[in-house]
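Deliverable D4.2, example record:
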Amino acid sequence: MVAETAGTADNDVRLRAVLASQPDEVRARYNARNPEETLKFADIKPGMTVAEVLPGQGWYAKIILPYLGDGGTLVGIDYSVPMWGKFGGFASEEFLDNRKTWAETWTTETVEWGNGNTANVKAFAFGSRPADMDDSVDVVMIVRAFHHLTRFNREFLDEAIADIKAILKPGGSVVIVQHRAPEDSPDDWANGDNGYIKESGVIKIMEEAGFELMAKSEVNANPKDQPTDQDTVWRLPPSLSTSRDNPEMKARMEAIGESDRMALKFRLGE
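Output generated by the structure prediction step:
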């Protein structure tokens, strides 16, 4: 017990040092994203293998990589190219061609991030999971990325869940941080198109897939965010998509802050 307590304390110090080393623009969002509390809720520890769905330019990955350290591995997971093709707008032919080589590009970019990133890095897109990655991951993080999986054909969600179940070690967990729709909102609005999903909907999807809900956290809750079925999550910071040119509306959105978010932890049932 003493050794375990000391190890936890050492991990806390390590995580706080990594968080303190991030650039100003990243640290400016800690009050909204609560990375220390979120990663503790996920029970991520140095040396683990952690997968992050849709890691993008590495906001969380740049924290997780140096925290995992030697012996740790970060796995980036992208949406499949066919799913990206459903987005329209920015998903041009050039964009889709670039997604085909995303895994190679992203792993190369992580080398350039610096900041003491000594963990191993791997990557793949849903639907093209390497067989040697099965039963290898301790924690899968899905941070503000679950809503896109529920927007389109059910096959994309099923494909993603199948890959997640395959890569998890026995006893591994899935942590979902997601924009939260009010439970009384219309189902056809809270289907992911507007960024929001009901907490009960996420739990239902995961339980039907064979996962057990282990824990909930309100660390990323924001009671000021009370969206109606006329709203999208992108009206809020940091996007401010509907108000960036309207100072009065922008001030109202900034007073709300970033979205209300659930944090849920699941594991596969026995």
